[in-house]
Amino acid sequence: MKDTIICRCEEITLGDLEEIAKKHNSSAREIKLLSRAGMGFCGGRTCRPAIDKILTNITKENPSDALPLKVAPPVRPISLTDLGGFGKDDE
Amino acid sequence: MQIYDVVIIGAGPAGLAAAIQCRENNLDVVVLDEFPRAGGRLLGQLHQEPNGQWWNGIEESKALLERAESLETDIQLGVSVHHIEKLDDQFVIHTKKKYFHTRNVLIATGAAESPAPIPGWTLPGVMSIGAAQVMTNVHRVKVGEKGIIVGVNVLSAAIARELQLAGIELHSMALPTRNVVVDEQSDPRLVMDRLSRIAHLAPSKFIQLGSKFAKYKFVQSLALKYYPTNGIKMWGMPIYLNKAIKQINGTDKVESVTMVDVTINGDIVENSEKEIPVDFVCIAGGLYPLAELAAVVGCPFIYSEELGGHIPIHNETMETPVKGIYVAGNITGIESSKVAREQGKVAGLAIAHKELNSIDIEEKLQAAVRNVVATRDAASIQFHPGISEGRKKVSTAFQETMKTQKELELVR
Amino acid sequence: MTNRIVDHPVLGKLEERQKVQFEFDGKTYEGYENDTIASALLAHGIRTLRKHEESGNPRGIYCNIGHCFECRVTVNGETNVRACLTPIKANMIVESGQVQPHPLNPSQEGDIPKTYAEYLEQEGRG
Q1: Mean pLDDT across C57-86
Q2: Could you tell me which residue ranges the BFD-like [2Fe-2S]-binding domain spans (chain A) (predicted)?
Q3: Taking residues B201-208, what's their average pLDDT?
Q4: For chain A, which terminal residue's Cβ has fewer other Cβ atoms within 10 angstroms, N or C?
Q5: In this complex, is the C-beta atom of B141 within 8 Å of any C-beta atom belonging to chain C?
Q6: Residue B204 pLDDT > 90, yes or no?
Q7: Most confident among A35-44, B26-35, B257-266, C1-10 (mean pLDDT)
Q8: CATH architecture of the domain formed by B3-113+287-411
Q9: Is the confidence at residue B218, as pLDDT, over 50?
Q10: Chain A neighbours, 3+ Cβ pairs < 8 A
Q11: How many residue contacts between A and B have a Cβ separation below 8 Å?
Q12: For position B393, what pLDDT does the model report?
């Protein structure tokens, strides 16, 4: 079970996450930054509910109203050229 | 530079219904969606209503699209929105090719699927249940020769039937084996309890059994105890609440799954492993509201298990505390596409009312709000119990947020 | 083309559509207008659309509606295009994703320039 991949993009397993959480006594955000789970290509869209669950289980806290993991733009991966607005038709 | 009255993100039932209301009131509207066809998740839906009529998502989408097109609605497909920027008196919608400036935004981005991670689930041939639905009903391509569904819930039962209708062979539906992430989906009792809510949908022995027994915890475990080893068949396909999928096997693609027996408590029975050859696997972990764009524009959230997760706070006219930002459809809670469509109407009318402030529109808006409730009460598919309680929680949260906002303004 | 659902008891017969030829990893395939790259390839039994950039593990479609990005491919030279959202066009050139050079693993370094001099040399300006 430990080798079950949770974050498909970064290939982070359940075991990886539990180990980090225990070793560093981490918050949700710290686990994300330490493991890169949820920080891959899809932006965590696939694994977010799973990671939330794992963190709730580790911290034994009920889900809070605020999003456990912050969402930051861009919510779809884009190239630096597109981000810079080159070639954009702003009318 | 053009400033739109409203940019609608998502061309599903909510987004299209909203666009129709806005266009009927002559607003400048653009609808954006990243999928190449309009309709959203509605496109793939195909099930028989309790009265025997078919709910055909392709036809329903077509009707909405035709109405929108007859009103000359600007619908741009294949466009992904990656940011909503808030300026003083307008919003800027960031897409890859273009920025859209607008006074109002309707975020109708629907839902994403929750995963049910099991070993081997990254292999080609493993897909979400929704992926199989779209491939089958929209693209009309078979997802494989023979498959198995991991995760037994309302959505996966409905889609299993759709795959069968398309002539795709399914070995069975079974639970995922237990881990932290899928603890609820791997609990036979909970799954049985939830299934009972689709009792009225299907004339099948299995579901009647669920319906009859689910109310009594004691009898429910009894029902599971006497659960036939070979599963109970729905439309000829076994549904196992006493078997679970432990892993998916294959080198370059799915070749088989390992199935184990589980007890009433979901514990694996030792030495019960069986290998079942399949070439595709559907993972059914349920849906959660896809609200990332509401988050980046600063909408506050509330957690509601009844509605499927974190919900952007909104009132009954689908307005969020961020003035000019509206939400409709599954982003506000997992419900049927009929409810989403009615919510879209409300949002469209609310935006029209804000821009035009007419008594006529206000009356229509009030009627539309009542229609959402009526549609919800009549819905044949309920994904979560206690939807109405969840909705009440969200309304209360909206009032509280607005009160706090006012108090803050007074302090300033 | 074998894997098409031609007759459907509720949705009816698959309508006649324009055939479209495109290329995937150097081979020519035929699909129909309104097919996505993913659906056209699956109709030919092709599931693997890329390899994980680091581990090389094979991947195919997972969500099929643009959320998971597992199906990203290169289309006419543009990288990271979602096969599940992109309709096929005549003569489109599609390439699967491959393992990428790894900056911290000498065996997987590839030919990415490590210095500015190497970069200029590769560009033919050294």
Answers
A1: 97
A2: 5-56
A3: 45
A4: C
A5: yes
A6: no
A7: B26-35
A8: 3-Layer(bba) Sandwich (3.50)
A9: no
A10: B, C
A11: 100
A12: 95
> What is the band of B304 on the pLDDT scale with cuts at 50, 70, 90?
very high
How much is the ipTM here? 0.92
Q: CB–CB of C3 and B142 under 8 A?
A: yes
DSSP label at residue B216: -
Q: With beta carbons under 8 A apart, name residues in chain A contacting B397.
A: 65
B295 in contact with A at a CB cutoff of 8 Å? yes
* CA-based nearest distance C28→chain B, Å: 19
Question: Is the CB of C89 inside 8 Å of chain B's CB atoms?
Answer: no
Determine the pLDDT at residue C46.
97
**What average pLDDT does range A18-41 have in this prediction?**
86
DSSP B4: E
Interface contact flag, C61 B137, Cβ < 8 Å = no
Average pLDDT estimate for B319-334: 97
Both tokens assigned to A51: 């990671």
Check if the beta carbon of residue B116 is closer than 8 Å to that of residue B151.
yes
The CATH architecture to which B126-283 belongs is 3-Layer(bba) Sandwich (3.50)
Tens digit of each residue's pLDDT (9 = 90 or more) over B39-65: 999 999 998 877 778 999 999 999 999
* pTM for this model (two decimals): 0.93
- For the cut 60, the answer to whether the pLDDT of residue B201 exceeds it is no
Using a CB–CB cutoff of 8 Å, tell me whether C90 touches chain B.
Answer: no
Distances (CA, A) of B220 to B193, B194, B385: 8, 12, 18
Res. C93: pLDDT tops 50: yes
**Mind giving me the DSSP string for chain C?**
--SB--EETTTEEPPP--EEEEEETTEEEEEETT-BHHHHHHHTT----EE-TTT--EE--SSSSSSS-TTEEEETTEEEEETTT-B--TT-EEE-B-PPP-TT-GGG-TT--SSHHHHHHHTT--
Q: C111: burial class by Cβ within 10 Å (0-12, 13-18, 19+)? A: exposed
**A 15-44 residues with CB below 8 A of C?**
41-42
Give the up-direction half-sphere exposure of residue C126: CA atoms within 13 A in the CB hemisphere.
11
Task: Collect all residues of chain C within an 8 Å Cβ-Cβ radius of residue B129.
Answer: none
Calculated CA dihedral for residues B140, B141, B146, B152, nearest 10 degrees: -50
* CB crowding B259-275: b at 16 or more within 10 Å, else e: bbbbebebebeeeeeee
CATH number belonging to the domain at C7-122, selected among 3.40.50.1820, 3.10.20.440, 2.160.10.10, 1.20.1050.10 = 3.10.20.440
Q: Could you give the CA distance from residue B162 to residue B47 in angstroms, rounded to a whole number?
A: 7
* Res. B197 pLDDT band, cuts 50 70 90: low
Q: How far is A21 from chain C (nearest CA, A)?
A: 24
Taking Cα atoms as reference points, which of B235, B155, B46 lies closest to residue C10?
B46
pLDDT for the residue numbered B207 = 47
Annotated domain spans of chain B:
3-113+287-411, 126-283
Distance CA(B388)–CA(B217), nearest Å, equals 23
Q: For residue A91, is pLDDT > 60?
A: no
